[in-house]
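Review box. Two proteins, two foldings.
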Amino acid sequence: MRLLAGSSATFGVGATGDAATVPSRLWTRHAPRLPWLNFSGQSHNSAQELMLLTLFRQHLPEVADIVLFSGVNNLVLSRLPEERQGRHGAFFECGAAPDTVPTPQERIDRAAGLTVRHLSTWKLFADAMGARLTYVLQPLAPWVREEPTPEEKLLFDELDDVSNFRRLHNDISTMEVGRKYAEVIGAGCAGFDVPFLDMNAALAEATTPDEWLFIDRVHCTDLGYDTVARLLAERLDLG
């Protein structure tokens, strides 16, 4: 068996059904040699993703691969002040947005630090289970391409009218921040000998500007998720 772990994008938010989620596309088309288990939950930070493994590991059969498809939530939550971060990072719904915001570099350092710290425990578990662990930085629409498709722009604009993503996270929604974040996490992965893939760069390379990949800045369309699954299989040699 193989595990795809992470948060809401792994869970499949935006997909038209379970069959269109990344784990399902891996199992049914792109990497069908072993079954895939969707090992994720919505609005999880890296600590909560790790907790899923610690709480349910005893129910798992033999695991060959663990692909951790994550990263955005830690950076989103890095906006919250120190007193809400605790020892394991901030959680969603833990308070109102602050008036003073850390700089983008401070947000990168905080989010990547948590990600790599929790990754070290994933590595211990994976080694003990005899599983290969890979970390994949999940895609964020403005990290993949600077200009959305017309369909994406209509959705993003409508969502911005009723939500606060652009107002709260415009400072991290740039190509530069995405590349810097990937660089820091990639270096942390290298320190544990964990293969790393930046799905943002992979998607940018493998798609055309007119392909409708996102339903919001974090979650994909069926085409987007299928493309992600294909790239995972190809880039990670999952076969």
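Next protein.
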Amino acid sequence: MAEPAPLVLVEREPERRIATALLNRPDRLNALNAELMGELADALRSFDDDEDVRCIVIGGSDRAFAAGADIGEMATASAMDMYAAKRIERWDAIRAVRTPIVAAVSGYCLGGGCELAMTCDLIVASESAVFGQPETGLGILPGAGATQRLTHAVGKALAMDVILSGRLLSAREALDAGLVARVVAREAWLDEAKRVAGQIAAKGPVANRLAKEAVNRAYEAPLSLGLDYERRVLYLAFASEDAKEGLSAFVEKRPPEFKGR
């Protein structure tokens, strides 16, 4: 009997120092069930522990990044089932990844899929991408971060519209609202995401990780605390070998050779 296909397709590109995790549940539009989320969390932990991986891409397919959580899996679950299974806690593994993550989004990016994309550090979207949070139409509400992250990204008024009315946002609307970083041609969503990831990976890995932490602190904390944190991680970056190399390379007019230390 043939082995079932993996729910997450993993690829490393050592020459670009990037790694890709593609959701692979095409018959369900990459609906996020517990098994898929477990495989994704394992892949991300492996990438994050690999010094040769300096940026990660998470994607789906042309038709769907992920059309939401697996409703069939949730429909019969009680509150205690959800609590015992630590369903939402799996998302903490993504938030804990220190390596920068680019979401490559094409097609449907709804419910848990939209929340997964927002957990990444930036979103590269195809012109075909559609973003939304339809949970209230099922009598529930977003529970993996959308009420918070979407509001931070697009503001209260638009977040209320998307979450309460079920409004869908096109890729261009998402770009204009600040949810998406870049919109590209339909056929270019994965290539462009990998290109952006390669640009990120070419920078100082220590600096990138610290900068990611600092930007996230700005997202989550008052300005005064964020500024204090930024100053601390700047001094920490100056203690790295990468900083010495990058600054010396600039003075010597040569490409830097970052080691991630």
